[in-house]
Write a structure and sequence with these properties.
By secondary structure, the chain is α+β, with helices and mostly antiparallel strands. The protein has six helices and ten strands; from the N terminus they run E-E-E-E-H-H-E-E-E-H-E-H-E-E-H-H. The protein has an eight-stranded mixed β-sheet, with helices on both faces. Strands 1-2 form a two-stranded antiparallel ribbon. A hairpin with a 4-residue loop joins strand 6 and strand 7.
Length: 243
């Protein structure tokens, strides 16, 4: 504990000053990319989303979600109608630019404009989106929107600690692990420990440029195979910026 030798008053350490201008709340906008477009969730998307994400073959995808799986189109339509009316979380349907059909869902949630913090959540990628450039482009479009347009300082990713694919995805996209919240929730009658990850505005330049370069046409051959992995591209950009 530091003290002033000429004054017994205790001197407390302080962090750097930051702007107190609040961020803007996420809006119902369309975020367009080369592989996918994120459009505001609409109840009319229910049928195509049901086809893309539901059914016995897809039940596993709902294991760590707060809801689902949904055995019938009717129950899913009610669910989508409810989600579409929400503004926080703000839900987006992920549309494939190849087929013009919905391939997944994602949301921006827990927005705190005063502190400029927001979370990505309710991530549901159907089989047609998984392990494709569109999966990465979804995160690029959201990150660019949050950091460059809305003015956020911190972007969070949280998932069930047992959801190892989600944990790997978070770190591949550039989110950094921050630890474990033990007995954080009760979900579907079971304990949930929550793994926390974050990305901050000072990191976005490297992360965003890495995603943009990885998504570029030159990084894929005629069969759609990547030349360099996302983490490799990001590491190369970070190394150049240190020079």
């Amino acid at each position: 504990m530091a003290t002033n030798p000429t004054n017994p008053v205790i001197v407390r350490p302080l962090d750097v000053p930051v702007s107190t201008t609040p961020a803007s709340r996420p809006q119902k906008v369309t975020l367009a990319g080369r592989f996918v477009a994120l459009v505001p969730l609409n109840p009319d998307h229910a049928y195509d989303l049901f086809t893309a994400t539901c059914g016995p073959a897809n039940d596993l995808f709902w294991t760590y979600m707060f809801s689902g799986p949904f055995p019938t189109l009717s129950s899913f339509q009610d669910h989508i109608t409810h989600l579409a009316s929400s503004t926080d979380p703000m839900f987006f349907t992920i549309i494939s630019n190849t087929t013009s059909e919905p391939v997944g869902l994602v949301s921006l949630m827990r927005a705190e404009p005063v502190h400029r913090v927001c979370e990505v959540g309710n991530i549901l990628y159907g089989p047609a989106l998984q392990r494709t450039p569109g999966a990465t482009e979804t995160m690029f479009l959201l990150g660019r929107y949050l950091f460059e347009e809305l003015g956020y300082r911190r972007w969070e990713w949280k998932c069930d600690a047992l959801n190892s694919p989600s944990r790997r995805a978070a770190q591949r996209f550039g989110f950094k692990p921050e630890g474990l919240f033990r007995q954080h929730m009760i979900v579907k009658g079971r304990n949930r420990d929550t793994a926390w990850f974050s990305m901050v505005d000072g990191e976005w330049k490297v992360i965003g440029e890495g995603m943009k370069e990885w998504l570029s046409e030159g990084n894929f051959d005629s069969e759609g195979r990547q030349s360099r992995g996302l983490e490799e591209v990001r590491a190369g950009i970070a190394a150049m910026q240190r020079e």
